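On clarity, I found the account of how folds are encoded harder to follow than it need be. Since the whole study asks how a given chain folds, the encoding of that fold should be made plain. For the editor and my fellow referees, an illustration may be useful. An entry of this sort, consisting of the sequence and the corresponding backbone structure tokens, reads as follows:

:::
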Amino acid sequence: MFWERVEVFEDSTGRTPFFEYFDQLSPTLQVKLRAIIAAILITGPSSFRTCAYWKPMRGELVGIHEIRFIGPGRIHHRVFCVISKSDGGESNETLVLLDGAFKRNGELLTRARYRQLADIYAEYRQRF
């Protein structure tokens, strides 16, 4: 099955920022997120076209992709992930889930929050 192609990043202190986010989601939103991840994996992360649910990030966060979806109350959810490629091409891609965040409609994530994400990504790149 394709779920073995998903990993969750654990930082050097043992924290898993993605699970800290995921555990806050309702069961319905957890299922919705799993369905989006499944669609990305079935297609192949590198082949999945940029759309409302999947966007590459820019600037200092190039290399990270966002899974985007909207929950009840127009709360916007973001899951930040990296495509890890091993030898063998697209079929050996792993989706590494780094972190997640949510915000109200019309709000932006803070610079501090993006800095936190950049720090997580820097640690990921350093270790892997």
